[in-house]
Fold this protein.
Amino acid sequence: MSNTPSALDLYAKVEDLLGVKEAAPRLYAHYLLALQAIDFRSLLDVGCGSGDFIVQLQGAFPEVRFEGIDLSPEMVRRAGEQGVDARCIDLCDVRECYDVVTCVFDMLNYLSPEELPAFLNCLKERLNPGGVLLCDLNTLYGFEEVAVGAFTAEDDRRFVAIESDFEAGVYEADFTLFEREGECWRKSSQTIRQYHYSPEEIAGLLGAEMVQRDPVTLYAEEPDKAFLVYTLPA
Ligand SMILES: C[S@@+](CC[C@H](N)C(=O)[O-])C[C@H]1O[C@@H](n2cnc3c(N)ncnc32)[C@H](O)[C@@H]1O
């Protein structure tokens, strides 16, 4: 089952309460290091979120053309506020080609098994010959031991509760958000799903060679993610 734009927008509204922004720089460091070894002039960040990753890259690679896309209108609005060239558009509707595509911080895990093959096919078509995909995937340990459970967070205008479970390769996080509106609170509920994939499955579906695979430990003592680099034939 695919994640709806409404569910992605609810996530966008609470992401800053989840500790994600604090952990992200440690993940981005893997991308920055790998990109320093690549000669590239254009990069598309798929699932660019609020644009933090592109903002970092723009500082490190001033000559490169950066664009972001995301299916959450709220995320795209936030990315635009940071000056990022971001669009709310499906990858398969993008017409331009790029030297590098990135899918950062769980983006590929958001795709259902029904969506993944077509998504990777479109991704391949958007890469120039010899193009490179940099991405990360949650490990089984990350899903089973780190992501599951109950979590609440709040500030003076929001309260969010998340109940999450992982079963048969599917992670389901039920979000309930209360947003202050004057004297009242508006309640909304959405489910975000993620799916477990192995690095080899991505290589097979993409028809690309996996040239780098690094363990990433963001939230625990064992690797909860893998950082991956794939290259297409020249
Ligand atoms: C966990 S967030 C990571 C955001 C960003 N990459 C970062 O590092 O902060 C995952 C993002 O993927 C987006 N997303 C999920 N499925 C998508 C799809 N099929 N196409 C584009 N974006 C998608 C979500 O809206 C969300 O912004």
Q: What stands out?
A: The first helix runs from residue 5 to 14. DSSP finds seven helices and eleven strands in the chain. The chain has two domains: 5-141+197-231, 143-193. The pocket of S-adenosylmethionine is lined by residues 3, 8, 24, 46-49, 52-53, 69-72, 75, 91, 104-107, 110-111 (CB under 6 Å).
